Amino acid sequence: MVDVDLPDCGVARFLLLFDGPWATLIIRELLHGPQRFGELREALPGISAHTLTNRLRLFESRGLLTRTAFPEIPPRVVYELTDLGRSLRPVLDAMYAWGKAAPVSAFVPASDPA
Amino acid sequence: MVDVDLPDCGVARFLLLFDGPWATLIIRELLHGPQRFGELREALPGISAHTLTNRLRLFESRGLLTRTAFPEIPPRVVYELTDLGRSLRPVLDAMYAWGKAAPVSAFVPASDPA
DNA sequence: TGCACCAGTTACGTCAACTGCACTAACGGG
DNA sequence: CCCGTTAGTGCAGTTGACGTAACTGGTGCA
After folding, report:
1. Is the CB of A21 less than 8 angstroms away from the CB of B15?
2. What is the CATH number of the domain that holds B27?
3. In angstroms, what CA-CA distances link A61 with A7, A84, B23?
4. Omega into A103 within 30° of 0, i.e. cis?
5. Phi-psi sector, A33: left (phi>0), alpha (psi -120 to 50), beta
6. Boundaries of each HTH hxlR-type domain copy (chains A, B) (predicted)?
7. What is the spatial distance, in angstroms and rounded to an integer, between the CA atom of B51 and the C1' atom of D15?
8. Of B83, B49, B40, B92, whose CA–CA distance to B63 is shortest?
9. DSSP A35
10. Do B15 and A24 touch, CB atoms closer than 8 A?
């Protein structure tokens, strides 16, 4: 039973880690600098605490970011990208550039009236 | 009711189009050149005809690729990226580079024995 | 005594992407 | 007459990312 689940292709590997819509957006926010849990939640309108926690924990376990909890009341937790996490910047930049350059028609569900 | 569903951020827009794991991989294959339906299916082990059709049709409707059906028997259909589709190459390249450079530990589910 | 605060956690349900299998049309070759 | 070929389609079912609602813990403030 070798690790069949690890594809050779770099693109496929990347996609293993960035499944849902939020995974990538969390990295995008963290590229702006270290952020607290609540700051991330505000920066990502619509995300649930559940999802945010899950993704954050996943990325921490994979070495993309660090979690620093300060033993204070009320608690304060700061998330910060590691070097590996920061190395995602070119990918995000490329996505951003494409998303900005592509015509709106590439994103609308169909010939969407009004 | 304006188009609320179209985010400003380029990254978020990109993610609107590339939801599932296959969407991106189909583009990756098409970057190698025009391909027939069957060629794509072989190049993407595990994909179902259903999924392939759906993604292809979506991308066609969004202007990322063209679908050319030759009125032959047996039928032959060729898919080819448009300029817009080809402009995704930098994004895919960045993903590939990251996926290749990142340590395996970033992809394994946990401290995976054996 | 009780509420607010932050950063979660737990239980449950939803939704869309995806899968497998069976099936189709139309024709050439045996 | 039947088989094989290509590019799908339809139906049923599964998976996993995600959402909502309720709740926790320890302290400051009223």
Report:
1. yes
2. 1.10.10.10
3. 20, 12, 26
4. no
5. left
6. 9-107
7. 15
8. B83
9. E
10. yes
Residues of the domain holding A93: 10-97
Residue B52 lies in a domain: yes
- Return residues 46-75 of A near B (CB < 8 Å): 61-64
Is residue A103 one of the residues assigned to a domain?
Answer: no
Local structure of residue A105 (DSSP, 8 states): G
What's the DSSP call for residue A56?
H
Q: Is residue B48 one of the residues assigned to a domain?
A: yes
pLDDT digits over B64-96, tens only?
A: 999 999 998 899 999 999 999 999 999 999 999
Interatomic separation, CA of residue A83 and C1' of nucleotide D15, rounded (Å): 33
Q: Which residue type is seen at A88?
A: L
Does B62 sit within 8 Å of A107, measured CB to CB? yes
| Strand pairing report for B35-36 and B76-81 | antiparallel
∠ CA B103-B42-B74, nearest 5°, is 165
Question: pLDDT digit string (tens) for A7-34?
Answer: 999 999 999 999 999 999 999 999 999 9
| Ramachandran assignment for A18, one of left (phi > 0), alpha (psi -120 to 50 degrees), beta (any other) | beta
A39 within some domain:
yes
